[in-house]
Write a structure and sequence with these properties.
Blueprint lengths: L4 H10 L1 E9 L5 H17 L6 E8 L1 H7 L4 E9 L6 H14 L4 E10 L3
Antiparallel strand pairs: 1-3, 1-4, 2-3
Helix pairs in contact: 2-4
Length: about 120
Amino acid sequence: MFDDDIIQKWILEKGRATSFTFLIYGDLTDEQSEVLIRGLSFFLEINGSDSEMVASTEKIDEKRAVAWNTFQGTSLSIIFGGDRLSLEEHIIEVITDGLNYLRFKYDYLGSNLSDSHV
């Protein structure tokens, strides 16, 4: 998941990266994903937080759903450079409000802090 160049750069510069992952039980379009991320970015900016982030979506087809023992849908991961676990509550609130507005069922799978291990 963290093989993207930007994320690797953040891990090297800041020592770690933080991801927050949601499982959405439906097909989240690129436009809907962009609305969620823009909303989160706006929220972070008006509250004085750095809003530099990367969003990654991955479709979960029937094969993956069986392998992961879950349901079909879309996985949405929001990734920040550095340790951003202090934002977890706010991120959950903003993204779940957006998903509720878009009328999706979802689960918040949790956060992950990745180190460089170098």
